[in-house]
Amino acid sequence: MASGMRAQWKGFLKFGEVSCGVALYTAASTSDRITFNTINKATGNRVNRIFIDSETEDPVPKELQTKGFEIDNGQYIIIDPEEVAATIPDSNKTLDIEAFIPCLDVDDLYFDKPYYLTPDKMSGDAFAALRDGMAKSKVAAIARAVLFRRMRTVLIHPHGKGLIAITLNYDYEVRSSKKAFEEMPKIKIQGEMLALAKHIIGTKKGEFDPATFEDRYEAALADLVKAKIEGRSLPKPKKVEVSKPNDLLAALRQSAGMMKAAAEKPKRTAANANAGTGRQPAVRGAASKTASSRSATQRKAG
């Protein structure tokens, strides 16, 4: 059981004739992001969302709201939530492993959401046997179960002391890449231009470390909120100039020279770089700054 976390789903993980009790916990959360309310500009009051009838324009209370499927323009068949629930297969409490596959066999396009998969108190041995067996064999598992009112396909693989379960998109949900790239011209880069591009890539090689990634959007929002409270404006960002085909080679040469010069300078670690800014994490920093600034504003108003 994960301390301080609420399970999103509890059930059983089955492989062969072995079953173990498991729980799913959300691995990624957006709860720490800065959020905004919708405000009435005229009054400064928060706006509430109300569902109204499209014809009568009368408010519709929650107990009268239901689901519907449009069969014609403005014509619907009503689908009761209980009818939807009745269509769910009986296997809504079992993650049934159907196959073990090489870890890199699934295209990233099919990844949906990640979850931590942990055993209950009685199933540690069975869970560990599956985890370690998969790790030694370097495989992932494909399982199916009803999760969150829908039959889902799940990719499961070892991660530290536990397992990661990633819900997968269905094939019909993934758009064709052919349509996305059909208007791209056929261009073959070679010679000096290709050599410079490879050189720039070589100088920027590194390792994946999510701890070094800053959410610049959240940081910008925090700065904006603070600036609004303090009654000041923020400088406008510089416009990005797109490299023109005729200037591309010159831009590549300039970039290669800049990369070489940067490589010769002492490298700054992510910790040192952040220490120099004095910036707190975007959300928490914004919250504390907002609270202190609001208090100061109220004292002045008083």
TrEMBL record:
<feature type="domain" description="Ku">
    <location>
        <begin position="56"/>
        <end position="186"/>
    </location>
</feature>
<dbReference type="InterPro" id="IPR016194">
    <property type="entry name" value="SPOC-like_C_dom_sf"/>
</dbReference>
<keyword id="KW-0227">DNA damage</keyword>
<comment type="function">
    <text>With LigD forms a non-homologous end joining (NHEJ) DNA repair enzyme, which repairs dsDNA breaks with reduced fidelity. Binds linear dsDNA with 5'- and 3'- overhangs but not closed circular dsDNA nor ssDNA. Recruits and stimulates the ligase activity of LigD.</text>
</comment>
<feature type="region of interest" description="Disordered">
    <location>
        <begin position="259"/>
        <end position="302"/>
    </location>
</feature>
<keyword id="KW-0234">DNA repair</keyword>
<dbReference type="InterPro" id="IPR006164">
    <property type="entry name" value="DNA_bd_Ku70/Ku80"/>
</dbReference>
<protein>
    <recommendedName>
        <fullName>Non-homologous end joining protein Ku</fullName>
    </recommendedName>
</protein>
<keyword id="KW-0233">DNA recombination</keyword>
<comment type="subunit">
    <text>Homodimer. Interacts with LigD.</text>
</comment>
<dbReference type="Pfam" id="PF02735">
    <property type="entry name" value="Ku"/>
</dbReference>
<feature type="compositionally biased region" description="Low complexity">
    <location>
        <begin position="286"/>
        <end position="296"/>
    </location>
</feature>
<dbReference type="InterPro" id="IPR009187">
    <property type="entry name" value="Prok_Ku"/>
</dbReference>
<comment type="similarity">
    <text>Belongs to the prokaryotic Ku family.</text>
</comment>
<keyword id="KW-0238">DNA-binding</keyword>
